[in-house]
Design brief:
The complex is a heterodimer of chains A (about 110) and B (about 120). Chain A has about 110 residues and is mainly beta. Helices cover about 0% and strands about 55% of the residues of chain A. In chain A, a hairpin with a 5-residue loop joins strand 7 and strand 8. In chain A, about 35% of the residues are buried. Helix content of chain B is about 0%, strand content about 50%. Chain B is built from no helices and twelve strands. In chain B, the strands form three sheets. In chain B, strands 2, 5, 6, 10, 11 and 12 form a six-stranded mixed beta sheet that branches. The model of chain B has no long low-confidence stretch (mean pLDDT about 95). Classes of the chains: A mainly beta (about 110), B mainly beta (about 120). Chains A and B meet through strand 4, strand 5, strand 9 and strand 10 of A and strand 5, strand 6 and strand 11 of B.
């Protein structure tokens, strides 16, 4: 158990819908990272937050957004869902910036029908 | 942009044998981190081992060790006395610290341990 929690574990929805994925980092960790794992794109970095502020963006679609709240949990919002958004979405956390090791949550498996 | 290449899509080895997974990367940076993550059928991403580029000594964690060749930009993972529980996808990953801390992953190697 990495100490990072993600909810829900599984999500099935329809095209055009909007969903919210939630992540709670390990106790004491200030940085949260979101990754997408899909069959065709592999593991890709989406976005990073540090202590409530956006720090870095990767290949994140405009239909996707994220935020980190004062209690340090983070949410990833996916809207106008398409079939190709079906993937495993991971959250990872570290203590701060430059501390290296990212510990991953169990992931949320999203299926868009 | 940094790239990570894992040239072995699949490997298999008999239980108790030793296996080496290959990884190469491309970067112009001098200071960075390298990781191996394991993803078993549960799909959880589990850290196996980490190497800081400024350290010349190769990292080891029990049965897992790396061969880090900085000049060659090579970072292979050796698993000794392989066990059935080692069956998983293994991902090599690269990270720059301080300002660009995203992990860049390779495409993975599917390792099967044969009883």
């Amino acid at each position: 158990d990495s100490g990072v929690t993600q909810t829900p574990k599984h999500l099935i929805t329809a095209t055009g819908q909007r969903v919210t994925l939630r992540c709670s980092p390990r106790s004491g960790d200030l940085s949260v990272y979101w990754y997408q794992q899909s069959l065709d794109q592999g593991l890709q970095f989406l976005i990073q937050y540090y202590n409530g502020e956006e720090r870095a963006k990767g290949n994140i679609l405009e239909r996707f957004s994220a935020q980190q709240f004062p209690d340090l949990h983070s949410e990833l919002n996916l809207s106008s869902l398409e079939l190709g958004d079906s993937a495993l979405y991971f959250c990872a956390s570290t203590k701060g910036e430059g501390f290296g090791t990212q510990y991953f949550g169990p992931g949320t498996r999203l299926l868009v029908l | 942009a940094q790239t990570v290449t894992q040239s072995q899509p699949e490997m298999s080895v008999q239980e108790a044998e030793t296996v080496t997974l290959s990884c190469t990367y491309d970067t112009s940076e001098n200071n960075y981190y390298l990781f191996w993550y394991k993803q078993p059928p549960s799909r959880q991403m589990i850290l196996v081992i980490r190497q800081e580029a400024y350290k010349q000594q190769n990292a080891t964690e029990n049965r897992f060790s790396v061969n880090f060749q900085k000049a060659a930009k090579s970072f292979s993972l050796k698993i000794s006395d392989s066990q059935l529980g080692d069956t998983a996808m293994y991902f090599c990953a690269f990270m720059e610290p301080f300002g660009n801390e995203k992990l860049t992953f390779g495409t993975g190697t599917r390792l099967t341990i044969i009883p």
